[in-house]
Write a structure and sequence with these properties.
The structure holds 2 protein chains of 2 kinds. By secondary structure, chain A is mainly alpha-helical. Chain A is built from 5 helices and 2 strands, in the order αααββαα. In chain B, 39% of the residues are buried. Classes of the chains: A mainly alpha, B alpha/beta.
Chain lengths: 136, 303
């Protein structure tokens, strides 16, 4: 039986990202890395709101977005759970976001004047570390 | 929406002090439910608005309704449906906590003792203590407990956390957001503290010189404001020609612009002004609101 798992999340006020967006990003990252495994139950809206010291409606909004994007699924009367993985974005949207991310990355890294192969090895390691852990 | 779906409704509301208009033809409709933050520079008309809404002050023109009633004709029963906490947390200093609590319990038919105890449980307040012996934070908590326990449909908080330390502030916000009494209650929250508003508010109302300047979720307002840095040559374009300008600064030879409601076409404007490097980024609530309020702030006219 699924139990609520602790959601180790920190939000910051004063950030250009609204708090609900920070929650969405945080949960997505945790699902993508497997820190929140398939079928795990998320904290209640009120519980997470109290943990973070924010308005419950903000949590509800973030949960709604995560559900609409297919990261979470709601089970009637039970709460919210991590949904089975499926590709949540269209190919075109993924290409667009990849382009943007690569462009940001290149902008930052090119100024460091490091050999490209060294950068690529490092990037490969970081991506590997983010891959879902198959064995637990 | 029908009339009763709004907790506050003002129509063409004006208030004049001598030759100065504190409220200018204000049309404000605040829907029932949720937490609404009201911000504005000093003198924007917030306090005047609250005084009129609570019936302490008559309007010069127009009308104001609170919970569907004319604010100038509130009955004691109407007042019982409205909770009010102000920044001074004024209560008679010589009275004990239990004496004041007993008086409120008699006064308000919907009094909820369990809720009162729950909210006051956030603070170390003894029933026998006199109000004058309480700290500012404890007085704020006691006031909030009294206001929530009366079972109001509308709770008006005027800078309730002003001067509270971090712990007292946190306790106050927790009591406000997570106690059971606040679920069916609409909260109007007046504050200058953006980090607090970001955590608390569903809706951001901005008053500016007695007029309504914004009414939307805080994140929608923030999305309207962007920050641009460009190497515009010389003194740059005349500020009066810059679209949506809130603030401009020249730092280390670069022009920094904070602008409202501008999309990527603002880059074209900068390019036309001779800029070669152009950068933009989103901003946080604090910068967005402060930039917005600073726009019409009184400044020497020589600029």
């Amino acid at each position: 039986m699924a139990r609520t798992q602790a959601l180790m999340l920190e939000i910051a006020t004063g950030d250009a990202r609204p708090i609900s967006k920070q929650i969405v990003d945080g949960v997505r990252m945790k699902v993508a890395t497997g820190e929140l495994a398939l079928g795990v139950q998320l904290p209640s809206v009120r519980g997470l709101a109290q943990q973070l010291g924010i308005n419950p409606n903000t949590v509800a909004k973030a949960y709604a977005e995560l559900t609409a994007e297919g990261w979470l699924e709601s089970r009637q009367g039970l709460g919210l759970f991590v949904a089975p993985p499926r590709q949540r974005l269209s190919r075109a949207e993924r290409d667009k976001r990849l382009d943007e991310a690569v462009s940001r990355f290149v902008h930052d890294v090119v100024a460091l004047d490091l050999p490209a192969d060294e950068v690529l090895v490092r990037l490969g390691l970081e991506l590997q570390a983010c891959a879902p852990k198959k064995t637990a | 929406m029908t009339v009763s779906d709004y907790v506050i409704q003002t129509r063409d509301l004006s208030k004049r002090y001598g030759s100065k208009l504190a409220l200018r033809h204000l049309d404000l409709n605040v829907p029932r439910g949720r937490i609404h933050a009201i911000v504005g520079a000093n003198g924007a008309g917030k306090s005047t608005l609250f005084r009129i809404l609570l019936g302490f002050l008559p309007p010069t023109a127009g009308d104001a309704r609170i919970l569907g009633r004319d604010s100038q004709r509130l009955t004691p029963d109407d007042r019982g449906r409205i909770g009010f906490v102000n920044e001074e947390h004024t209560l008679p200093g010589w009275m004990s906590v239990q004496a004041i609590t007993a008086a409120h319990r008699r006064l308000y038919p919907r009094w909820d003792q369990q809720l009162f105890d729950e909210v006051l449980g956030h603070y170390h307040v003894l029933p026998t203590q006199k109000v004058s012996q309480l700290s500012r934070g404890e007085r704020a908590g006691f006031n909030l407990a009294l206001a929530l326990a009366q079972g109001p449909e509308l709770l008006v908080l005027d800078e309730p956390t002003l001067g509270l330390d971090v712990v007292a502030k946190r306790a106050f916000l927790e009591a406000l957001m997570y106690s059971n009494g606040s679920d069916d209650c609409t909260v109007i929250y007046c504050s200058h503290q953006m980090d607090e508003i970001e955590r608390v508010a569903d809706n951001l109302i901005i008053l500016e010189q007695g007029e309504l300047a914004n009414m939307s979720p805080p994140e929608d307002f923030v999305a309207r404001v962007t920050y641009w840095v460009a190497d515009v040559p010389f003194k740059g374009p005349d500020p009066r020609t810059v679209p949506g300008l809130l603030q401009v600064q020249r730092l280390d030879g670069l022009h920094h612009y904070l602008v409202l409601d501008q999309d990527d076409s603002f880059a074209d404007f900068l390019r036309a002004a001779g800029a070669r490097s152009i950068n933009s980024m989103p901003v946080g609530l604090d910068r967005a609101v402060n930039g917005f309020l600073a726009k019409n702030h009184a400044a020497p006219s020589a600029a």
